[in-house]
Amino acid sequence: MFIRQIHYLLALAKTRHFGRAAEASHVSQPALSNAIQHLEEELGVTLIRRGQRFEGFTEEGEKVMQWARILAQDWEGMRQAAAQYRRQLTGVLKIGTIPTMLAATPLLTEPCQAAYPGVSVKLTSLCAEELIRQLDRFELDLGLTYLDDPRLKGFRILPLYRERHVLLARNPDPRLMKSRLGWNEVEGLPLCLLTQNMQNRHLIDAAFREAGVIPRVMLETDSIFALYAHVCGAGLYSVVPHSMLNAFEMHREVIALPLAPELSRQVGLVMRRQNPSTPIQDAAWNIAQTLDLQPRFDALITAAY
Description:
The structure is a single chain. By secondary structure, the chain is an alpha/beta fold. It has three domains: 2-74, Arc Repressor Mutant, subunit A; 82-161 and 266-293, 3-Layer(aba) Sandwich (D-Maltodextrin-Binding Protein, domain 2), CATH 3.40.190.10; 162-265, D-Maltodextrin-Binding Protein, domain 2 (3-Layer(aba) Sandwich), CATH 3.40.190. 41% of the residues lie in helices and 24% in strands. The protein is built from ten helices and twelve strands. Strand 1 and strand 2 form a beta hairpin. Helix 1 crosses helix 4 (59-85). The N and C termini lie far apart (62 Å).
């Protein structure tokens, strides 16, 4: 019963609503409320501020929540270990990724599920700040993000590839067809870019500033697929990480031109340091170590000519 109480408490922390927490836990609201009250009695502290509805956690409740997340993670790790001993690793691999790296995730998830068919994957697109927060709260097993983020100190890190930015174009002006296309030569082109709240856009804006260029931005979107669609169908240009090309069927008239000086950042897998880590985390991490992604993504540039 104790583990079930912990999961009820975590569901309430996530939904901030007794009814939705009960629904997510597949129990009635009275059953969930009674279980949490029994937990409070066992611990001898009040965890929840109650009124007509859920009003948040008490100070003691917030501290207990930190332990609840650790206990839930340890329980899941123990359950996975038991399944592994039966040679039947099962469970959910929870991966968070920043949006521009979504295209690379199948190269990890596919071999993981091929090796462990009992494992399902929950993949979430998050900003870097939220990704780190969820790793810290044991809500994610792994994160895929830029490795130069100073907030990653203390995390376990596995470099996977160096992201390179390219100019994506459909039937471009012939004057752009050169081996070294400068950022200053993009000035005046009608561009579609990611929105300004996204980390990748900050990098691109910085590169334009350094080149003394004011980009002509015709469209902004938070979707990499919308960028590709507007390059293909609206005659716009875009600046994108070359790993994104892995998600698209590159037509002959759509090409990816490398930009100079090169704008690149190291991308990798991150995981909260814990001992022991769960069997699912270990399995995915070990598979990630065998991936050779850099040549695959680099070839997408040359193959686009």
